[in-house]
Amino acid sequence: MQIKTLRRWNNAIHRDTGYLCIGMTLIYAISGIVLNHFKSGDLVHPDYAKSYKEVVVPLPKDGNVTEAYVFSVLDRLGEKDHYKSHVLGTKSLEIFLSMGSVYIDLTNGSAQVEKKTPLYGIREFNLLHYNNIKKLYTWFSDLYALALIFMAITGMFVLKGKNGILKRGAWLTFIGILLPALFLLFYA
Amino acid sequence: MARKLIFSIGIMALTLSACNMVSKGLDPRDAVKVAVATFENQAAGIVEKTVIIEGTVLHTCKHGGKRMFLVDGNDSVRVEVTAGKDIPKFDEKLVGSRLRVLGVLKEEKIDEKYLNEWENEVKKPEENHDAGVHTGAKGHEDQGTQDKLDQINSLREDLKNSGKDHLSFYSIEASKFEEIKK
């Protein structure tokens, strides 16, 4: 087979594999950014956006936490309709709401109100990224990883001439390998 | 062409969802009923047995959602529940919900060797989150290196005082769970 024919096949396969990989690449890339910043501490949770408010609430009479006390706190905070359950700690009380919680320090009445909003879409992307669903998805995601390897290899031979792998392409490929190697060298 | 493609994708989706529904599960009739309050006392005698437990979710692990903690009324006893192979994750929306969980009771033995390996893991720049003992206490996932080293030293002390060669920590590997609506 001639080089020209080989290159035509290479480019056609590279192109079609590329189309097939768009969906998974976007899922892994978007979720990758989120998980990256979650691991580096910029985000408190990968699946939920959270906000916090510090307030002071009255302490329970006689130190006894009753359901009436819990609801009086929620009434004060305008969260009565969102009550789910509550759990008593040694010196604290945590009230769970449908989309958040109230954590009360029973020694001084200081409370933290947490509100959370699901990151729809990203939450599902993270589920795939972590491979939490396993089963057939393990094989499917392996196939996607193999397709990426295949794309990287065929990508080297898409162009010839001054932009090909032997000239400009060689330098850019070298830089692309050097950068992660430097991170490993200096940080690992 | 487009119709054929949509039809094929539809067939594939149906096949995948059908595969997903096939779950052997565990028979709840064989399960030993355990309670959160008495879990620690019951656990040693029923390791590797199928158990059923009810409790309120205090916390779900934000690193992949593979772990949650159940309490009952107060947080003095926290029962660790890990996700079995058929449970993708414990979503944070479960926090505060009352659940009934079916699973197998597991024992983790913590000895001197384990503590040494954990200490080495904590000292690494990129720590493996799965290493170590998870307590479910508020903020335990945001512990710094020193907090974890303190926890390891406290366990070393407990191990020494126990007079045994290991400490036992019990958890439930869940195969199924359901929310109990009030």
Provide a descriptive summary of the structure in words.
The complex is a heterodimer of chains A (188) and B (182). Chain A is an alpha+beta fold and 188 residues long. Chain A is 51% helix and 19% strand. A five-stranded antiparallel β-sheet of chain A has the order 1-5-4-3-2, with helices on one face. Chain A is elongated. Chain B is an alpha/beta fold and 182 residues long. Chain B is built from four helices and six strands. Chain B has helices spanning 2-21, 39-43, 112-123, 145-162; strands spanning 32-35, 50-60, 67-72, 74-83, 98-110, 167-179. In chain B, strands 2-3-4-6-5 form a five-stranded mixed β-barrel. In chain B, helix 3 (112-123) runs antiparallel to helix 4. Mean pLDDT of chain B is 83; it is low at 14-26. The interface between A and B is medium-sized, with 30 and 27 residues.
| Overall mean confidence score, pLDDT of chain A | 94
Kindly report the oligomeric state of this protein. Answer: heterodimer
Element pattern of chain B in H and E: HEHEEEEHHE
Order of helices and strands of chain A: HEHEEEEHHH
Radius of gyration of chain A: 27 Å
Strand content of chain A: 15-25%
Count of discrete domains of chain B: 1
Spans of at least 5 consecutive residues with low confidence of chain A: none
**Total count of domains of chain A:** 2
| Number of separate helices of chain B | 4
Strand order of the largest sheet of chain A: 1-5-4-3-2
Q: What number is the mean pLDDT of chain B?
A: 83
In short:
The complex is a heterodimer of chains A (188) and B (182). By secondary structure, chain A is of the alpha+beta class. Chain A has helices at residues 3-39, 67-77, 122-129, 136-155, 168-187; strands at residues 48-56, 83-88, 92-97, 100-105, 110-118.
